[in-house]
Amino acid sequence: MTDDRAGGRGRGLIPRIVATPIAPLELPARVPRPRPIAREVLASVLPGPGRDRLAQGEVLVVTTGQQPGLFTGPLYTIYKALSAIALARRLERAGSGGVGVGGGGAPVVPVFWVAGDDHDFAEGNHTWFVDSAGDLTEIVLRERPTDAPLRPLAREPCGPEIHAALERLRAGTPDSEFKADVLRWLGEAYDPEASLADAFAAALNALLAPRGVAVLRAYDHGVKQAAAPWLLQQLAVTLADGYSPVLVEASQGRDRLRREGERAGAGAGAGVGEAFVTRRSEERFTRAELERIAREAPERLSPNVLLRPVIEAALLPTVAYAAGPAELAYLAEAAPLYDALDGGIERQTPVPRWSGVIVEARVEKLGGRGPRGPDPRAQRAIGAQCGARRHARDRKEARREPQARERDDDTQDRPGARRGVPAGPAAGARAHAGVVLDPLRAGAARCARAGGGAVGGRSVESLACGSSRSCWPSR
Q1: Phi, psi of 437 (to 5 degrees)
Q2: What confidence score (pLDDT) does residue 391 get?
Q3: CB atoms within 10 A of CB 384
Q4: Is 466 left (phi over 0), alpha (psi -120 to 50) or beta?
Q5: Range 342-364 burial, b when 16+ CB lie within 10 A, else e
Q6: Cα gap 48→215, rounded to integer Å
Q7: Which residue from 302, 250, 246 is spatially nearest to 274, judged by alpha carbons?
């Protein structure tokens, strides 16, 4: 859409992007030593310029990641990848002269960690888009039965339902010069035979590889094989809730492990004859059996959300991680797990991903009176968006199965993450939001005084601070 500055007819049609930082930007103060990427890890990276750079020898990486989602999932997934690109470029430039970050001129490669171990199908089975009427519309691939095993998304196929999902996207989106290419791009990745994780990785690779991102399938055999020894070391660790940070795929799907006979906080040491019991299925695994799984089927072992960045730092020379607000909260809790590995692993620096609000022209009109007063179409637009978000939140709560606690073990960068948002990032984002919300509040009040009533029965804050993941994914 263009701005017709000559005639003024197109003025204001281009959406305005307002940054809403979730935390202050602090660049890494310490840099790990550049090193080559292990061959088996490199084999799990999808083709592209990023993988080519990783294969050149000693490198550093800036990582980010996300659980798989339908049609690339929440918009903040892309924000995280773009943040990693920008940060890697900045750090590499800083080291190009042989000083500072960049390891004396070592390449700094952005890496996207596709967390296909995640088993939360209720998070990955749907997406939202803005339809031809300007309303938010949800597409749900299918629901998983509440008593079904919690399979990793790397083994959850898109299935024949993906055809209907693509058709809904095609029928619901307005025509544009981009539509055909977008549908082709997503259709090629989201194939019925592909797993949700593989489809997600393929779509991201097609979009981001030309920009230098190395898309790493962290669930692939090569990565799992390389990670297995590190995971076995973490069996000696017991978290405050009494469980290990290592999960095993058992008869009820991905499951947490508790050392046999141990209570929360007991902290008993590991031993050759020790055994572990899964939380849901109550299956018993000796350490020898877990070691055999690590050798023969390493895909069955995986880190929980606290251990994931530790394994990432063990496998990759990671200088920084582009993190969302939930990750900024819990990454600090992972500190003891770095020291639990042989020799210790240097922690990567968490750096806040970019966050912003896309303000449509019809919404921004609420912030100004204009020659004809409040715009009723803008009122309806906000009302529809707020109603859709309220419906999405209610629907999500209604479909949470009894295994919600297990799903929450893998919360990564999600609105309403189990550990919450730290006061700093939350306060920072909402303070910056005043740039957008203050004029919208005033405009909404004028609409109400003019007889328009409440804005969709909700506060204007819900436009930016609701369950939307596309406008303000900072909760």
Answers
A1: -75, -35
A2: 53
A3: 15
A4: beta
A5: eeebebbbbbbbbbbbebbbbbb
A6: 9
A7: 246
Whether this model's pTM surpasses 0.85: no
CA gap 269, 70 in Å, rounded: 42
pLDDT of residue 17: 83
Closest by CA to 437, choosing from 388, 472, 389, is 472
Distance CA 224, CA 426 (A): 35
Both tokens of 7, joined, read 């005639």
Residue 65 confidence (pLDDT): 96
- Quickly count: other Cβ atoms within 10 Å of residue 335's Cβ: 11
For residue 405, what pLDDT is reported? 40
Q: In angstroms, rounded to a whole number, what is the distance separating the alpha carbons of residues 456 and 193?
A: 41
Is there a contact between 142 and 126 (Cβ–Cβ < 8 Å)?
no
d(C-alpha 187, C-alpha 184), whole Å: 5
* Per-residue model confidence (pLDDT) at position 359: 77
381's tokens: 């637009």
Phi and psi torsions of 286, nearest 5°? -75, 165
Query: How far from 233 is each of 161, 248, 307, 350, CA to CA, in Å?
Result: 41, 14, 11, 24
Question: Quick one: pLDDT at residue 456?
Answer: 42
Q: Which ranges of the chain have pLDDT less than 70?
A: 1-13, 96-104, 262-273, 362-475
Residue 376: CB atoms within 10 A of its CB come to 11
Q: Closest Cα to residue 112, out of 80, 70, 137?
A: 80
